[in-house]
Write a structure and sequence with these properties.
The chain is an alpha/beta fold. Helix content is 48%, strand content 9%. Strand 7, helix 15 and strand 8 form a beta-alpha-beta unit. Helix 9 crosses helix 15. The chain is globular, with a radius of gyration of 25 Å. 40% of the residues are buried.
């Protein structure tokens, strides 16, 4: 009953729309943003060309930077490539703090790593950098970069950890003591832990101040989720229901098809469900009606997922077969009263943040997490999008393209937004948890969710991006953030934008990179008129050390891109020496 009430909280009174055609040409185009979008309708013949971008022109790439800043960048990136420093960086930082004292240590960090990767200590000190970048065509995604240094005993308060083989839930969605610290091996993203409701409220207040201070198009929203157990349980529910659909699809000879290509025959599905003893035939026939599922005579994954909603009054029938025992098990297990209260409070906090973003005119991007949390996060983000993405995409989800099922996730979200009439918005990333995900899958014994190779991840990223760009061509309200430091992926995006007549003036395709990384990509894009943003963290020096550690490790792992960036910095320094512009002042 408790989980049923939580599901009803997620979706209060959202009407189900009839299934629409999936052909983009069948949908009405509507303009987004001020004025007509170049490359649409009657303007097609006279549209301006998509601006060319030269990522090798160091004079243009670094004209916003003073020479000493280039020298600092070169030093920091070179240190990030020094293995001996990286393997002992935590010990070295500790020794430096002890020897120098906090004041001198802070000055040293501001002259090097902190000054390179972090904007400042508070909302006032970061404003000069924000204004400077904006003057050169680069916007800001603001994020308060402080992280708590939690000990092992503080990571999962109230969690009950599983002994392998003692829990009926899927292995992937159980809490294991060995993996209680889901920061291990994570170098590209910040990881949050639930401590208590007071901490979550404090975090929400920080996010509200961040939204107010941003003054830009985006702010980053890291949802303060409830406890680990609740996240895992909710994710387990959603994933089991999806797996049940694919089990039925395999019985109908549709195993291995893409998610949006898998369509179950209703009559066959009813027969299968009746044979399992889940419900009577009369009850099952009420599930699949023209009112609830359209008139196609088939059920796709979006139709199937809608059945889990409490409005369909199916909760008592939501059971799935255990693949090992063959027995039917309840899908919606019981939440405790405290867990239900945590979920309710979280939904209230998300509502406050979204309303504040609407008031200020800022868009929110919800970060992704590990696969064993992500189904819950995706569902909660979806509910925010349904509510707030009515006129424009206020809430952006995040799709991690290093996952094997990334394309299915993207296509399902695009189609759901299309059917229900809200505005699609997503940030596409490669992913931040590869090492940890693989270690956990191997140790616990479930299928590795990550693409097998870097090349496969690149192909998946481009496939997902291409699908979204095609949607953007026929839906001017849809938006995407191409969040990547990969120059080839940026070039791929520019080429497809030109082929699809997606002009940057339409402000449908955004680009994003981290502060202190890949300026040779960000600033040429901004100066050519493309919407591009820097992820700008801020916070006191001592509090952002975990963030700085990850940036150092990330640069060391991206050897090809970091090496090219160092080469371009050298070239620009040499050019300024040769041309007498060593004391260049950005204007």
């Amino acid at each position: 009953m408790a989980l049923r009430r939580v599901l009803s909280l997620l979706r209060p009174g959202i009407p189900r729309l009839a299934r629409l055609s999936t052909a983009p040409a069948a949908r009405e185009e509507s303009a987004a943003g001020p004025g007509p979008v170049p490359g649409r309708g009657s303007a097609e013949a006279v549209r301006p060309p998509v601006p060319a971008v030269d990522f090798g022109n160091t004079q243009e790439a670094y004209r916003s930077r003073r020479t000493w800043e280039l020298a600092r960048s070169l030093l920091v990136l070179r240190l990030c490539a020094w293995p001996a420093l990286l393997t002992r960086h935590e010990q070295l930082l500790y020794v430096a703090r002890k020897l120098l004292g906090e004041r001198l240590f802070n000055k040293l960090m501001k002259m090097t790593f902190y000054g390179h990767f972090v904007a400042g200590e508070d909302q006032e000190s970061i404003q000069p950098l924000i204004r400077h970048n904006r003057a050169f065509g680069v916007g800001t995604i603001l994020d308060y970069g402080v992280e708590e240094d939690l000990g092992p005993e503080e990571l999962c308060p109230g969690c009950t950890f599983t002994i392998p083989g003692t829990n009926k839930r899927e292995k992937q969605y159980q809490a294991y003591w060995a993996f209680r610290d889901h920061r291990d091996g994570v170098i590209s993203a910040r990881t949050y832990f639930y401590a208590n409701e007071a901490k979550c409220d404090s975090h929400m207040e920080t996010l509200l101040r961040c939204i107010e201070a941003s003054g830009e198009a985006f702010s980053l929203l890291a949802i303060p989720l409830p406890c680990l157990h609740l996240q895992l349980q909710f994710s387990d529910v959603l994933t089991k229901w999806r797996c049940f659909f694919h089990q039925m699809a395999a019985e109908q000879g549709q195993a291995g098809l893409a998610a949006m290509d898998t369509k179950l025959e209703v009559a066959v599905l009813q027969e299968s469900v009746a044979k399992m003893g889940i419900a009577s035939r009369a009850e099952i026939e009420d599930w699949f009606t023209a009112e609830t599922l359209g008139v196609s005579g088939t059920v796709d994954l979006l139709d199937w997922s809608s059945l889990i909603d409490s409005r369909t009054k199916l909760c008592k029938h939501l059971v799935v077969p255990n693949t090992q025992t063959g027995q039917l098990e309840p899908l919606l297990s019981r939440f405790t009263e405290e867990e239900e209260l945590q979920m309710t409070r979280m939904l209230q906090r998300m509502d406050v943040l979204a309303k504040k973003a609407t008031e200020v005119g800022v868009r929110l991007m919800v970060d992704a997490e590990q696969t064993y949390f992500q189904p819950a996060i995706s569902r909660l983000t979806l509910e925010m999008q349904r509510r707030f993405n009515v006129e424009r995409p206020l809430i952006f989800s995040t799709h991690q393209c290093y996952l094997k099922d990334a394309y299915d996730n993207v296509t399902l979200d695009v189609e759901l937004a299309r059917r229900e009439g809200w505005c699609f918005g997503s940030k596409l990333v490669r992913g931040a948890y590869m090492a940890q995900e693989r270690a956990r899958a191997a140790e616990i014994g479930y299928q590795d969710p990550i693409n097998p190779t870097y090349e496969a991840t690149n192909a998946m990223y481009h496939r997902c991006l291409d699908h979204v760009l095609k949607e953007l061509k026929h839906n001017a309200k849809a938006k995407v953030m191409v969040a990547t430091h990969n120059e080839d992926s940026v070039r791929f995006t520019l080429r497809r934008m030109e082929e699809l007549c997606l002009h940057p003036a339409g402000h449908q395709v955004y680009f994003g990179q981290l502060l202190g990384m890949c300026d040779q990509i960000s600033f040429p894009l901004g100066q050519a008129g493309y919407p591009v943003y820097k992820y700008v963290p801020y916070g006191p020096v001592m509090d952002v050390l975990p963030y700085l550690s990850r940036r150092a490790l990330e640069n060391s792992s991206l050897m090809k891109g970091a090496r090219r960036e160092r080469q371009l910095l050298w070239l620009e320094l040499l050019r300024r020496l040769r041309t007498g512009s060593f004391f260049h002042r950005p204007a």
